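Sample 1 of the test manifest.
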Amino acid sequence: MNTHSKTRALAIIKTWGTLMGFLLLLIVFSTLRPDVFPSGRNMRNIIEQVATLAIVASGVTVVMITGDFDLSVGAIASLVGVVAALLMKSGMSTLMSILLALALGTSAGLLNGLIIAYGGLSAFVGTLATMTAYGGVALLISKGTTIFALPENFKVLGQGSLSLLPVSVLIMAFTVFVVYLLLEQTTYGRRLYAIGGNEEASFLSGIRTRQVRLIAFGVSGFFASLGGIVLTSRLFSAHPQAGSPFMLNAAAAVFLGMTSFREGEANIMGTLLGVFIIGVMGNGLNILGINTYVQSILTGAIIIFAVLLSSIAKKRQK
Amino acid sequence: MNTGEVLRIEGLKKQYPGVQALKDVDISFSGGEVHGLVGENGAGKSTLIKILAGIVKADEGVFRFDGKESTISSSKDATRHGLSFIHQELNLVNYFNAMENIFLGHTYPRHYGPLVDWKKLREQTRTICDSLSIDLPLEKPVSHLSAVQRAMVAIARAFAVNGRIYFMDEPATALTDVEKEKLFNVIQSLKEQGKTVVYVTHNLDDILRITDRITVMRDGQVVKHSRTSTMTKDSLISAMIGKNLASAFPPKTGTIGKPLMSVENLSNSLLRDISFTLHSGEILGIGGLVGSGRTELLETLFGVRSVTTGTILLDGTPYRPGSPGEAISSGVVLVPEERRKGGLVLSRSINENITLMSLPEVSRFGFLRHTHLRRKALEAGRSVRLKASDYEHHVDTLSGGNQQKVVFAKTVMRIPKVLMLDEPSKGVDVGARFEIYSIIRDLASHGAAIIVVSSDFNEVLGLADRILFIREGGMTSIHDNEGIDQEQYLHYCYGRTHA
């Protein structure tokens, strides 16, 4: 292959490699279990399974554009679920309970932003600390137990459907659309990407960089809360650690997404692809009867492989 | 002792997008010599050094170490060949002391198996320092040392790993006269040990004083190369400039108008008692050496640094910006010194960079108006003669000159009242420089007040209507730019109020 076509091939791998990997996964699982995996019912199953993760990961995308990080989304999701459940059980209306819990989770995100953007802690350390603290609050107020017997009308968010479409999937679509608008169509999105590219130049261009980062954490907190509410409704019970898997899976989805569509930048379509890769992996390996511990190992390996592949392609191209 | 040729470079070429940074450069260095390397900004000195350091890869060229052909493709190769680089941002570990830093990358002396023999380490460090007549506190973390002491730690470290050629890029800029003498003594010791020192600076007095040979570069070529004893300041300057000064700058057009900004007794931690009045249509040059407070003055007026005492009036109303955002909305805009660091988001498109300062103007209720945005960006780009095939391309695909035009376009979009330029032509090749100067003149003739800071004194002399000289944060004098020559300029920079 001559150098020119080699460069082109690398460029294609860099932009589309992750997507091709995803399609490959679909093909492999469909070939191995043609009776079960590609069925309409299973596809619907996968989409419903990933909806909550997609909601949470959309928020994390916003934070990660500026080069920050949010480890606390899992704890926020759990906390919000517990708070909503307790409020409903205390007799408050379902809608009011949800709104209050969302407000609390958003505030928790803003507190992250305050600590990190204004307090100067690194995002990693800051959200590691708040993750621990928020998780502690969730355990404390729930006394470490699962909260059952929620009002029947709360079921609709996680389990209801609007004609054929599951409500949770509609919420996911709405979230992705809102985050897309925010990132690609607003001045705020431009500021976020500018800070991610060069914080000093952004500051010298008059951007209030700390405020922009603070808001990003607020957005992440809000969508973590929304994910937590949908999850609680889906499980129809609140557990103080129900959201824990979000922490790593959301970050993994955003990292996978950074390898596709846009060079090295977190972006919403990439995140969505990342979410589906993680979802399809989990579902497919389950169907093949592979043990969950092995699934974790494989998920980790795939993330390393995807990120390595795209960074190698990037280096070669230079 | 090796006094023969240690390194010969032949036919070195390097092309950047849009700029031929090095065109067929031949140069050689001998043992036991201090070799001066001079040239204006953009002449190719830093590209040459980056190639030798293994940071940038040459397109063509042959390197002969002791006559043997070799390559440099990484910083490891550079170290292996005994090349060491002493520059302002020294790679020292701040909380390590001098000894630990000097032996970094070398092996520490050991005893009892793996344990470090601190006594022996101290002795060995002393030996190194003595042979270079360096006097250093060995036990303090290097973050507590002065600039010159830190430079000496870096030199001693290179010496410890048997460095043969020491590249020093403006090592003396932040140093006092006494400290500079110490540095020169160390350079002398290195030379006596048969080492080669390549000394890069804008300070011609220093170059003439301490070097044995001088190479002058201009536009990516070696234009002069001879023994220092045969050169004078004038011959160096004319070799560096190449053509006469007046033709390199567009003629002045507009007239100077009413006072726009008046600064009175401005002081903060880095500046004291600066006063001047800036008029619309005027170009005010700030003269002074690197580290004199030039950049800090601009940063203070731009709200990056706070004002402790003093007043600033902008259009007759008090002005005290708390952030660049506030400065920009008052109409005061800065083109920062390091365009890649402070001026541009390289990973984003030209459109996005040009509109970054003006997002409210290209949006409605926070939503971008894409068509309007593209039209505005194109207008701004055209007004600064930006050459780009597609404004959706990333700015890092542009040449240095065009990148700088993107920064200008960004500020032009704001229609600034006061435009401050820090090193406006740094890393811009000579052809594009004239265009940059024309843009500056254009803006002034449309009524903007402009402040220019530059290490290239010809630039200040060629552009400014008046020049304010500052030294160690205080202003020394302010002059109309009439009949000031380069020598006088330097005298003013050193704080003499008359030549």
